[in-house]
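Can't paste images in this forum, so I'm doing it all in text. The chain is below; anyone willing to post the predicted structure tokens underneath?
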Amino acid sequence: MTEEPRWLHIGIDDEQAIRLLEELAKDGKLRQRLEENPRRVLLRRFRIDFPAAPATVKLPPPEMIADYANELRKKQPFGRDFTLPHGIVLLWIAHGNGVHPPSPGDAAAAD
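Text version of the structure:
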């Protein structure tokens, strides 16, 4: 059996991603479903297809998720020009990461 490709498809725009983050911060049942079956919930509810999703995840606290949504509504999220699609931020959080998503400048600095 061959592995699925490590690709990602995000079928939402920035505003939808923010609204989904806000919902994820408020809806404990949605958070639980996402933690228990990330790929299925990401695809069905968030319109993010992530074949390499882990079997389970541990999400950041609801307050932190709400902070991300609030930050993304600012003119300069995370204190800088922000060109990263907000759907990536949604995936970053939904994948169980508890740190700020990487900025485009961070990738250049790592090279």
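Residues 14-26 form the longest helix (13 residues). The chain has one domain: 9-97.
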